[in-house]
Specification:
Elements: E1 3-8, H1 11-27, E2 31-36, H2 41-50, E3 53-56, H3 66-83, E4 87-91, H4 93-106, E5 110-115, H5 119-122, H6 128-144, E6 150-153, H7 156-164, E7 174-176, E8 198-202, H8 211-224, E9 229-233, H9 246-256, E10 259-260, H10 267-274, E11 279-282, H11 292-299, E12 304-307, E13 322-325, H12 330-342, H13 347-361, H14 364-379
Parallel strand pairs: 1-2, 1-4, 2-3, 4-5, 5-6, 6-7, 8-9, 8-11, 9-10, 11-12, 12-13
């Protein structure tokens, strides 16, 4: 029996983003092992129920800490030596870097890298910390990606950038598979138009996700229209250099009138809120892979307003299932939001278009089937 190890950074995302992929691999008769850099009791319980062994290899989530990072590399190496997987699939920055090296050192395990977005480090910014980390990551990626049997990207922009920088070389096989896939059977079509109109943004609460632009756009709309609701859903990010601070969030709630819904852990909980909105908004300028929250909103038949940004633009056919707006432009965002206020009859057909698009391009069965085919090719 072939053994596959899935290695990522965050336990809480393992079930939401990789559960169906792990189940698809089990359906091939493979023994699946999951590894994350942190531990979660609920995740452990869910994996136990699936018959998947769960192990942890601790590492610092952000920044460069040479001592902890070297320790993480050795932990991964000894995990590979102990469990002897035929293949390790790494996603998130540090698991890709150190998981690839550990697989190479093991001499037995083949490695696949999944580039699920480039995140904070690769998002343009003037902070010295960001610039230093970018230099480090470029050096590491240029070395480690060549150690992989296959590299999977979630959007063409990231692949083109890596090719431009010479990260892949001529020998590294690579593919673009859009998104992590969503189970379109979980959420059926929802009421087309909620009254009053409700705009919902769901994202991790870091400014690169467009939180400030959303707040400013809500101010513009509020100054012109009554009886419009604005909601914000997402987890506070402690320790992130670009995180929204709690006092700033309180100001958004008290001064702008945005309803903060807190954070959720599962797709089922996310759908509870998405079903109650009219239009979904994600004005991100972050280096996205393919935002899961947008795909979930499309599943629920919601029109999408997002940015003409890496990872986001592939989810929207402008004017069909929503609108693409300029990055970091709250006025352009407000203009798109205003369209739905003045043309509420367009919410239903655009929502239907979202549902059709997600079923055709981002359904989990399609996405995971493509990944399984790649893994089969590497194993054989």
């Amino acid at each position: 029996m072939k053994k596959v190890l899935i290695n990522g950074a965050h336990a809480r995302y393992l079930i939401n983003l990789r559960r169906d992929l792990m189940a698809a691999m089990q359906a091939q008769g493979w023994n699946v092992v999951a590894c994350t850099a942190d531990y979660d009791d609920k995740v452990h319980q869910t994996l136990d129920e699936m018959g998947i062994q769960y192990i942890t290899a601790k590492c610092a989530r952000t920044g460069a800490n040479p001592v902890m990072d070297i320790g993480y590399l050795f932990r991964l190496y000894f995990i590979l030596k102990a469990h002897k997987p035929d293949i390790i699939i790494n996603y998130n920055h540090k698991p890709v870097v150190f998981g690839s090296i550990a697989a190479f050192l093991s001499r037995k395990t083949k490695s696949i890298a999944m580039i699920t977005g480039l995140g904070y480090v690769f998002t343009p910014g003037r902070e010295r910390r960001r610039r230093v980390l970018l230099v480090i990551m470029k050096v590491l990626y240029k070395f480690v990606l060549r150690l992989n049997a296959h590299v999977i990207f979630q959007n063409e922009d990231d692949r083109e950038l890596f090719q431009q920088w010479g990260f892949l070389g001529k020998s590294v096989k690579n593919s673009v598979i859009m998104g992590s896939g969503v189970d379109t059977s979980i959420c059926e079509s929802c009421p087309a138009c909620v009254r009053p109109i409700v705009f919902l943004m769901s994202a991790r609460l870091i400014y690169d996700k467009g939180v400030r632009e959303y707040v400013d756009a809500c101010k513009i709309i509020k100054s012109k229209y009554a009886n419009i609701k604005f909601q914000l859903l997402g987890q506070m990010e402690t320790g992130h250099p670009n995180a929204v601070k709690i006092e700033e969030l309180d100001r958004f709630v008290n001064e702008v009138g945005i309803e903060y819904l807190g954070s959720v852990e599962t797709s089922g909980e996310v759908y509870t809120y998405i079903k109650q909105c009219s239009v979904f908004v994600l004005p991100s300028f972050y280096r996205e892979g393919c935002p899961r929250t947008i795909l979930e909103a499309m599943c629920a038949s919601k029109p999408i307003i997002t940015t003409d940004n890496v990872g986001c633009r592939q989810t929207v056919c402008d004017g069909s299932n929503g609108f693409l707006v300029k990055k970091q432009d709250s006025r352009d965002l407000a203009k798109a939001m205003e369209y739905f206020i003045n043309n509420p009859q367009q919410i239903k057909p655009m929502g239907v278009a979202s549902r059709k698009k997600v079923e055709a391009e981002f359904d989990g069965a399609i996405v995971n089937g493509k990944i399984v085919t790649i893994v089969e090719g590497v194993l054989n």
